[in-house]
Amino acid sequence: MEFQRKKNIENRRLIMGLCSAFFFIIVSCIPALADGGDDLLKAVRLGEIEQVRSLIDKKVDLSVRDNRDKTPLIVAAYNNKLQIAKLLIENGAKLEEIDEKGYRRTALLFAASRRKMNTTK
Question: How far is the C-alpha of 95 from the C-alpha of 105, rounded, in Å?
């Protein structure tokens, strides 16, 4: 009985160690989200241009992608955030990037498909 109890404790420790290692690997595979990319995507969605500007000044990766494979520029175009889209383009966001998981569209195609003509200009 005591042997089985010790074995269970060892197994739990092993599982916890593996879970910690797995979590570390996952987090380290998403460097953009670890260094502000998630904040940039959130600020773009919410239309917080000053926050976007601040994150750009901190050199956050403008090619970061959300869980639906959208870049900040695609998110801005999709949500008709014209000033943020301009800001991202002026600071090097790539116009030709597409969302690989969804509709396979660029930011321009997203804006046009949503009939956001101001953003397409």
Answer: 11
The whole-angstrom separation of Cα 81 and Cα 79 is: 6
- pTM (2 d.p.): 0.64
Alpha carbon of residue 68 to chain centroid: 9
The CATH code for residues 35-120 is: 1.25.40.20
Dihedral sign from CA coordinates of 93, 97, 103, 108: positive
DSSP letter assigned to residue 104: -
DSSP state of 87: H
Contact (Cβ atoms closer than 8 angstroms) between residue 97 and residue 109:
no
**Under 8 Å between Cβ of 36 and 60:** yes
> Can you say whether the dihedral through the CA atoms of 44, 40, 62, 71 is positive or negative?
negative
Whats the size of the chain, residue-wise?
121
pLDDT in tens, 13-65: 767 666 565 555 554 454 444 446 789 999 999 999 999 999 999 999 998 98
Gap between the Cα atoms of 85 and 75, Å rounded? 9
